[in-house]
Amino acid sequence: MIRWLIVIFLALLLVNGLSRWLERFGLGRLPGDFRFKLFGREMFLPIASTVLLSMVAALIAKFV
């Protein structure tokens, strides 16, 4: 189980580091991605982008 936690942590770091680059392609600005301010802080919920990236990852895993 600790191996999966490390993999998830590294994947989140990778996506976080690539987020500015991915925004150039429209990820983070899809219709299901929510940005709102709450208590003076900007919150971001990338629901549609997460679904899209999961589908891409599943297709890559299927063919590899």
UniProtKB/TrEMBL annotation:
Keywords: Membrane, Transmembrane, Transmembrane helix. This is DUF2905 domain-containing protein. It comes from the Bacteria. It comes from Hydrogenophaga atypica. The chain crosses the membrane at residues 43-61. It holds the Pfam family DUF2905.
